[in-house]
Amino acid sequence: MEDPIRASLDHCVKCTICETACPVAQVTPLFPGPKYEGPQAERFRQPGGSVDHSVDYCSGCGICSQVCPQGVKIAELNSRARAQLKAERGAPWRDRVLARPGVTGPMGAPVAPLANKVMASAPLRRLLERTAGIHRDAPVPPYARRSFQRWARGRRSDGAGGGRRVVYFHGCSTNWFEPGLGRMVVAVLERNGVEVALPSQGCCGLPLQSNGLFDPARRTLLRLAADLGAAGGQDAVVASSTSCGLMLKREGREILGIEDGGLRAMGERTFDICEYLLDLHDQGALDTGFRPLPMTVLYHAPCQQRGHLMGTPALDLLALIPELRVVESVGGCCGIAGTYGLKKEKYPIAMAVGEPLFEQVRQVGPDAVACDGETCRWQISAAAQRPSVHPVELLFRAYGLDG
Amino acid sequence: MRADGTPHEVVVVGAGVAGLVAALRLAKGGRRVRVLAKGVGATHLTGATVDVLGYSPERVGSPAAALPGFVAAHPDHPYARIGIGVVDEALSWLKGHLADPRYVGDTGRNFRLPTAVGVPKPSAVVPQTMAAGDVVDGKSFAIVGLPALKDFYADLVAGNLALAGDGIEARAVPVGLDLDGRVDVTPPAYARRFADPDFRAELAFSLRGRLGADEVVGVPAVLGLAGAEAVWEELEGRLERPVFEIPTLPPSVPGLRLFDALMGALRRAGGRVVMGAPVVGAEREGNLVRGLYTEAANGRRYYPASHVVLASGGWAAGGIEMDGSWAVRETVLDLPVCGVPAGARFLPGYLDHQPLAGAGVAVDRSLRPVDGEGDVVLANVRVAGATLAGAEPWKEKSGDGISVSTGYHAAVSILAEEG
Amino acid sequence: MKSIETEVLVVGGGATGVGVARDAALRGFDTVLVERKDLAEGTTGRYHGLLHSGGRYAVKDPQAARECAAENVVLRRIAADTIEDTGGLFVTTPWDDPEFGDRFVRGCAENGVPVEEIEVADALRREPALHPKLRRAFLVADASMDSWKLVWACARSAHRHGARILTYRAVTEVLRDGDAVAGVVVVDPRTGDELAVHARLTVNATGAWAGRLTVMAGCREVEVVPGKGIMIAMNHRIVNTVVNRCTMPSDGDILVPIRTVSVMGTTDSPVRDPDELEITQAEVDHMLEEGEKLVPGFRSYRALRVWAGARPLFGARPPGDGVTGPRAPGGDTRDITRAHALIDHAERDGVGGFVTITGGKATTFRLMAEETVDLACRKLDGAEAALRPCRTATELLPDAENGYYSVRSRLAAREENLLDDQLVCECELVTRGTLEAALERRPTANIDDVRRALRLGMGPCQGGFCTYRAAGILHCRQQLDQAAANAALLGFLQERWKGVAPILYGDQLRQARLDDWLYQGLLDVEHLPA
């Protein structure tokens, strides 16, 4: 059988809807657009010999596939083309390093204060830009002193006998940079009578995939699935990063082409934290005893959150908090696209892509920006100079758990 | 499978004009609405004029005058089903919700607006920014050619416009603009440039002194996305004469404006949109649909529904399909499709009336789908837009007219059930 | 009326005709070619593009097999850049007799066709879309060849050696001088201008139309049977190797990857008139069904276009007929040999200065041309004179030094000019610069000519977007009057519709409906001023 992702190019009727929605094509002519890179160029491709270097400018946001009315797997085609290109030309060592937070994490965490000082030092960042190609102003988060797994190790979950049990897939960002978020997720779940298993776990492989390093990405993802599965049997897996969650739900299959019954089954029982909590609410099982939070929050749904194709459960949850005023973002992409916007040659593009969103944040001036994607939070905070939180943090506060 | 939403939610399938109009009308009527769309609809591809009836097959000067005869001759046409009065009501309502740009006109008289090949096409309700293009005898046109815009050829427009009627004159006026060396600027890319006051000034300046005393200026429809009406007014002021936009091939900037306007209004009215999720199944109980399934990233998701509005876009959008064995299917609810010819589906002349053209889902006066005997198949479903049978909208020039009025009527019909 | 003189006049601008013109010009003859439409508008431009390995004839038609095997090697050398070295597979599907494979291998061995049996698993790894239950697989030296590129390369080469190539000149009269043909009168259908071409020798290279000219010349009609074959282009390269069914030639037994599409072929039914090639729904259905045997799920792929070409089938003739080339028993048109036939009308009809070359296939066009020009030498120089040597087997055609064509070429080229040029036809990556250069070389008011030269409009949208752009650009650059510009636009829409209407289903039906919304709903082209 012909590969179904490639075969989906047949559905393209050249309508230009994807090109209109592509945030990168709007700001730079170096990227000719998703229709060009996806279904159009695919007809000219043949195994063994990539010629389309412009595909490297695709940020992998996935908006094109979301808006395509004909079901062309555009983002998936682009990802594969990029992987093909990297496989033939070799990936720069910078990309290989950025793609492995599971490796750099354990290196940076023990020396967090020093590592953070380096990353905050302007001259050292300029040096890093020259040598490693990471833009001097790129929003690199500070390492936490103590990883989430250190906190989680040996901790027994307190599910208060609610009868539900989940496995928490926290992701590298929570582990190395935002362990506080992980603690909040656990607290909110336990507040609702959900027992939370906290197995030792690695990276989902998304940065490897988005940098075109498909073989290590597959290995990494399968290892993660094994770790999560060992802890939970058939329990639901809950993710607090919408990008990482999407890897497990779908991208491992559709982009990496992994055909593994176990992985597919795990994908079907993987939920984003907001999705999970809203489902509880629909079943009448969510504790809605929220205190008022008299603040204004601007909610931005990351591109990969929208890629879950489940609507925006965060909005429905936040609507339950009294006095919380939520403004929806103008949409679009914040530009960071995982590791894309960190790169020297891509940073200006990323900042141009996110500018309409940043401008809206400056205009609205919210108390915080709420966003389910960690790299998006760091990007928006750095660019618009406002604090950013995961929507779960607002629930945490509204439950009074921060007291 | 997970539950999502409450049982009182109306689910609209499709985010084209018909779907968004239905959803907005429902939301304004106080209903919870969720739009499930497998992608963006045809707004981005059309000129965003609301064409009610352009040809029957003679050119129609006044849809209001022509419609009674037309629906009498075409009793299965969507207009015949919903009643002519609904058309005016729907258009009036729509105009009330569009502000940037405003829409003007009514079914009393068609504008005749030049297309991108210079043919005066009849349209009933149009964006304010296009109205001055109305082709009447004795008018003189200057058609502006913008550089690096590959989807608009001013010479072609002017050449044919000049042949459009008595005393009509038209000529192309190419301008040079600073585009940072770009050789390919798409309509939306142009529209974004028009947010820059210096760019707008440059355009006005390059036309100053090159226009005849009575010439009305036609420009490709790229005068900005948000704020288009203000840009248009400013240009008219600077050139001291009427200016009008001419829709281009996709991507259509007027279409983008319409999409943004309807989506924005829907969101403000509390409607929810799930973009990118195709509907893959339905729960039925007798002659009712209880809910719809979409294909989300982690498998099927269920949306319980009190009613469903099917605005799936017809043949062009895959709402109705013919497979390689020539079998025809309505792809969301498996409704019966009528009008599929037994013999030849297509004739050799490109401009012939193609036998398959009118095929679609047949409906009753409330837009409920019916079978070959005229019996209602699903009582809580309404069908709107291009999925409907009985029309050849691209020939009649009735596309958005049908979408707007049937989308509106579908919503009203559901609202009426509440009593 | 204007008139010109030449030595060798070639009538017919398909592969054979331009091949003859090139060979004659290279051998020093003053040469003129006339073609009623555009080069390769006939049979040469309407087949699937197969460069035969000879495998398809190995069992049925040994003479044709030998010729193809030999010319395959020659063309790969002299016309490399028109050829994509896809390689070929012959596969035994569950519907085919596995023992035929043995006959096939024997036939190849006996006729100089290189062949190698391979493991079915290897064939499936190479082409995963093929039927998983294949029983046998063989590799051969098939390739795909771009016939327009080939024909224009020959024409350019001929032109460089002094030949005059005149397209859009239809023969209205054959001039006689006693019992010899002295030339023709042609008319340009675009302008009505007439031209008399006086020639010492007239070569009838009109292929499937050969009979007409022979009658106009006052000879007994050469009975060439137009063997209609339909072809379906699939939207993308389902396979990257030419795939044949290993069985006696039958309908829908070949799938050829050529440029960005794969072409399924073909049928074979005799018709009366090569200009009247009706495509029936039954034929289309039959081909789609046969396609399922090679590629499961074939009907769910997107079929882009269907068209028909007419093979020039020249059957048995009684001896003493002045015919060179093999004879074959009559009957089923598939039984008629595909080897060519060269007819000296002096011998056959007592009419001098006139020869007909017909039959054959694109792969052997050069050989056909060589034999024809050998005969021309004998007739014009005298039978005793030394034969002017033929160089066409060794002299490279223009651009052949670039080596084999790769499907990636246009994408690579576009990557280099992303910021410098607009795309007019996005599907086939045709830039504005390329279009304008083509118009400079060969001014035309007909978008279909542009299509043949550049593949504009041959992609998935079948002219949906580029028709408007091409019309706008032609209107400007060629300074067409309004009527001509409108005619170009409507003409191309009609031309594209012709090939799409018979296979409209699935994705292509969606596309056609979108194109209707654009051209009729948005542009209102049916109300363009007459």
What does this structure look like?
The complex is a heterotrimer of chains A (403), B (419) and C (530). In chain A, the strands form two sheets. In chain A, strands 2-1-3-4 form a four-stranded parallel β-sheet, with helices on both faces. In chain A, strands 6-5-7-8 form a four-stranded parallel β-sheet. Chain A is 51% helix and 8% strand. Chain A is globular. Among the domains of chain A are: 4-89, Fumarate Reductase Iron-sulfur Protein, Chain B, domain 2 (Orthogonal Bundle); 289-398, Rossmann fold, CATH 3.40.50. The longest helix of chain A has 19 residues, at 214-232. The N and C termini of chain A lie far apart (58 Å). In chain A, helix 13 crosses helix 23 and helix 16 packs antiparallel against helix 17 (261-268). Chain A contains 23 helices and eight strands. In chain B, helix 1 (17-28) runs parallel beside helix 12, helix 4 (84-97) crosses helix 12 and helix 7 runs parallel beside helix 8. With 419 residues, chain B is α/β, with parallel strands linked by helices. Chain B has helices at residues 17-28, 63-73, 78-82, 84-97, 154-161, 187-193, 197-207, 228-239, 253-268, 314-317, 393-396, 399-417, and strands spanning 10-13, 33-37, 103-104, 111-114, 120-123, 126-127, 140-145, 169-174, 216-220, 243-246, 272-275, 279-285, 288-296, 299-304, 307-310, 320-322, 328-330, 381-383. Chain C is of the alpha+beta class and 530 residues long. In chain C, strands 1, 2, 9, 10, 11, 12, 19, 20 and 21 form a nine-stranded mixed β-sheet that branches. In chain C, a hairpin with a 2-residue loop joins strand 15 and strand 16. Chains in contact: A-B, A-C, B-C. Chains B and C meet through helix 5, helix 10 and helix 11 of B and helix 13, helix 14 and helix 15 of C.
